C-alpha cells in the first residue's frame, strides 16, 4: 500500500526479475521512503523502477536515522521467512492503483 501524509492513498504491486546463480527462496517486506514529492509522483505515474545498483538497508530499530537516499529513495527490507543465497543482478518494477 502507498501511504502519503499518514493516509492510504492506493495500493502497489512489485515485480522482480534477476539473472544469475540463486539458491533458496525468501519472503520479505519492503518499505520505500521517497525523499521529495517529485519521486513520489513519478512512482504514482508508473515511472519508477530499481536497477541492479539500488541498495537496501535491513529494517531494524534506528535504521531510518541512518538511511541514505539514492536517486531520491531509501529502501528498507525486512526478511520474513526463508533463506536466499545469490550472485545475481536484476531489478524491481512497481504498479500503483489509486484508492
Provide structural commentary.
With 99 residues, this protein is mainly beta. The protein has one domain (2-98). Helix content is 8%, strand content 62%. A hairpin with a 2-residue loop joins strand 1 (2-4) and strand 2. The longest helix has 8 residues, at 37-44. The radius of gyration is 14 Å and the shape is globular. The termini are close together.
Beta-strand segment tally: 5
Rg result: 14 Å
* Low-confidence segments: none
What order do the helices and strands follow?
EEHEEE
How many angstroms does the end-to-end distance come to?
9 Å
Q: What percent of residues are in strands?
A: over 45%
Question: What structural class is derived from the secondary structure elements?
Answer: mainly beta
Number of helices: 1
Shape: globular
Largest sheet: 5 strands, mixed
Mean residue pLDDT:
73
Q: How many structural domains?
A: 1
Helical proportion? under 10%
Can you give me a brief rundown of this structure?
The chain has one helix spanning 37-44, and strands spanning 2-4, 7-34, 49-50, 57-58, 73-98. The protein is mostly beta strands and 99 residues long. The longest helix is centred in the middle third of the chain and has 8 residues, at 37-44.
Amino acid at each position: 500500500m502507498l501511504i502519503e501524509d499518514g493516509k492510504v492513498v492506493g495500493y502497489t504491486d512489485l515485480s522482480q526479475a534477476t539473472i544469475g546463480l540463486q539458491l533458496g527462496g525468501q519472503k520479505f517486506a519492503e518499505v520505500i521512503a521517497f525523499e521529495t514529492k517529485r519521486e513520489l509522483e513519478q512512482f504514482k505515474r508508473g515511472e519508477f523502477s530499481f536497477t541492479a545498483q539500488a541498495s537496501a538497508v535491513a529494517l531494524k530499530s534506528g535504521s531510518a536515522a541512518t538511511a541514505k537516499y539514492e536517486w531520491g529513495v531509501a529502501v528498507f527490507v525486512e526478511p520474513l521467512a526463508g533463506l536466499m543465497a545469490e550472485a545475481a543482478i536484476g531489478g524491481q518494477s512497481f504498479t500503483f492503483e489509486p484508492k
